[in-house]
Amino acid sequence: MSGPIRHIVMWRLRGETAEERSAARIKVKTLFEGLKGRIDGLIHIEVGMDVSAVDYACDVVLFSEFTDQAALAAYANHPEHLRVREALGDLRIGRFQVDYPIKETGA
């Protein structure tokens, strides 16, 4: 597969209180947004925090785009990404992921 690829990840986070979950959301957002401009092939990164408050919602979503599948694969083992994963530790209690190619406009 060649061409740009979109990588979307959603997490449920640990936290006994609303304050703990809010702090966890902010930590995830801050750490992942800190990857902007630090990883070759990562062309877009955005982190959203859920505001719906429904019990089945995920807490945080990561929306990122890479130049191609190889860049996404390199990201998985990049030292900066691994640093973020380590900093989050066991904060994540559920993880969902979708990767898909981005269609060229006009196609």
UniProtKB/TrEMBL annotation:
One Pfam match: Dabb
SMART domains in the cross-refs: Dabb
Matches recorded under PROSITE patterns: S_R_A_B_BARREL
Stress-response A/B barrel domain location: 5-100
Xref: SUPFAM superfamilies: Dimeric alpha+beta barrel (SSF54909)
InterPro entries (alphabetical): Dabb, Dimeric_a/b-barrel
PANTHER family in UniProt: BLL2683 PROTEIN, STRESS-RESPONSE A_B BARREL DOMAIN-CONTAINING PROTEIN
Protein name listed in UniProt: Stress responsive alpha/beta barrel protein
Protein source organism: Bradyrhizobium huanghuaihaiense
Classification lineage: Bacteria, Pseudomonadati, Pseudomonadota, Alphaproteobacteria, Hyphomicrobiales
